[in-house]
Amino acid sequence: MANTKITDDPRIDPRIKALFGAFEPGMAGGDVSSRDVLLKEAGTEEAAAQREMITAFLGMCATEEIAPSTGLTVTEHVVTSAPDRSRLN
After folding, report:
1. 3-class secondary structure, 75
2. CB distance 21 to 14 below 8 Å
3. CB 82 within 8 A of CB 88
4. CA distances from 36 to 11, 23, 39, 47 (A)
5. Is the pTM of the predicted complex or chain greater than 0.70?
6. Tell me, what's the pLDDT at 76?
7. How far apart are CA 38 and CA 48, in angstroms?
8. What is the span of the domain harbouring residue 71?
9. Which of 4, 7, 13, 47 qualifies as a cystine partner to 21, CB 3.0-4.6 A?
10. Beta strands in the chain (DSSP E)
11. Above pLDDT 70, what percent of the chain?
12. Are 23 and 3 in contact (CB under 8 A)?
């Protein structure tokens, strides 16, 4: 089942639609009851294998031919979290 939320959105680049439209909605997981549950799920061997697969896939897409860096500006921002005033990079 295609992810129609992505494939039907006219604002999304057709290349992104082609890649991510094939993923089923919810493949990234759903809501969890607590942070501890999320960390437990993320710590499984299956979750680690999925991260490796996605990292490898995205690495194949990070080429000058697919995404030229000409004219690209990269910046770094530091944001302070309002609830606890911690710094986020």
Report:
1. coil
2. no
3. no
4. 36, 26, 5, 15
5. no
6. 94
7. 13
8. 4-88
9. 7
10. 79-80, 87-88
11. 80
12. yes
